[in-house]
Design a protein that fits this description.
It is a single chain. Helix 1 packs parallel to helix 3 and helix 2 packs antiparallel against helix 3. The longest helix has 19 residues. A 3-stranded mixed beta sheet has the order 2-1-3, with no helix packed on it. The protein is flat, with a radius of gyration of 18 Å. With about 140 residues, it is mainly α. About 15% of the residues are buried. The chain contains 4 helices and 3 strands, in the order βββαααα.
Length: about 140
Amino acid sequence: MADDSYQTASPSSDAPLDDGKVHRVNTTNQSIDDESALPIRELAEIPAIEVISRAAVMLMSSAAEKLGLSEADPMSSAHLDLDEARRIITALAGLITASGEFLGPHAGPLKDGLQALQRAFRENSAYPDEPGQGPGEKYTGPVY
């Protein structure tokens, strides 16, 4: 089982970061009560494909929230923000396009997720962009 926390300073290093704290990122969505119980991984030990995939999933989740897809009626979502969604989808498209050759079996599902977000953006827009002009489409080509 892979550890899901990262430390940005070497655990054997006595030199703290600028603020004097060890910085950890918990990606398990679990409550952290005892920091000493957290599994720690060096960022240098994490394979690039894992870093890229996790970044893509985080961008997808953020875009879905900004599109209101977590609600039964996306247009009534308190988190609906198409301007922010456009930026996030474009960043996601750039990441997936630039790293496509390294994604292996992850490429298909990530591209499918990106296209679903691009279509949802078009559906939620009062004035949909022309095909090829939507978020991220300069990287992916038109999405219909």
